[in-house]
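Q: Hi! First time doing this. I have a protein sequence and I read that you can turn it into a structure. Is that right? Here it is:
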Amino acid sequence: MQTLLLTSAVLLFSLLPFAPPAYSQSIDTKLLGEMRWRNVGPFRGGRTRAVSGVPTQPNVFYIGAVNGGVWKTTDFGRTWTPIFDREATGSIGALEVAPSDPNVIYVASGEGLHRPDLSVGDGIYKSTDGGATWTHLGLRDGQQISQMAIDPHGPNRLFVAVAGHPYGPNPERGIYRSTDGGQTFEKVLYKDENIGAGDVKIDPSDPNIVYATLWEAREGPWENGEFNGMNGGVFKSTDGGQTWHPLAGGLPNGIVQAYVAIARSDPKGSSPRLRPRARLNFIVPPTEGTRGQSRPRTRAPETVSAAAIYPCP
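A: Yes, that's right. Below is the predicted 3D structure, encoded as structure tokens:
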């Protein structure tokens, strides 16, 4: 009996919680002051259409994410600071630093690409202090702005390529020009409410020469429903945007979307290039009785089916 009682007492004692002796620990708070937050994921940053450096400041760069605002680095890209968080939109389609004044920055909102998932913007913004503060200028109903070009000789003259509403027609699309720093905008190249602008470039050796592209495109109300037409094209102005004429000689027929690049080393020679987008282009015939249904796609005749580079006429 005594053995049984002794065994029960040992088992009961073994089941009791064991509390080790407590020791006071002191932490040097100076060590906590040296701790910094770091990103451990996810590492996918999303799409970025807008990026610009500053030739006179090789350590400064700006990037604009399609739905992440504008970021700036002053240490060659080692660290980045968000400088657009107080504005009404975070969707960025274009960003340009004035060549004649690096403190002047124009930001165009709305990513300017047709894709199944996109975000729209609310027009043009301008900073005159290197991105510290911003002012909203206009073109609010453009929703999607693809590109901008600033006169290399003055920050107040610029061209804007407005793509327009991605899911429907609207008149605020095409190429716009401002000569007063964005206080007012004048539509200088336009076809109709279904054709927007895709790109615009100013000849660095002659700001009266401007190249632009128009793009007829529409997003459908369902996933991957994208329709393109051939009523856009590539255009050139030699009088500062007053008049435009389409470029044709040597270029393929049926261009749907195109980008323009001008070689700064030889803008007057054979260096300017037009690069149609690498894709198969399709149009949808306007057949009756198919509203709300997936209609068969017809390949547009003589359209570009692969990437190519063409000398600019």
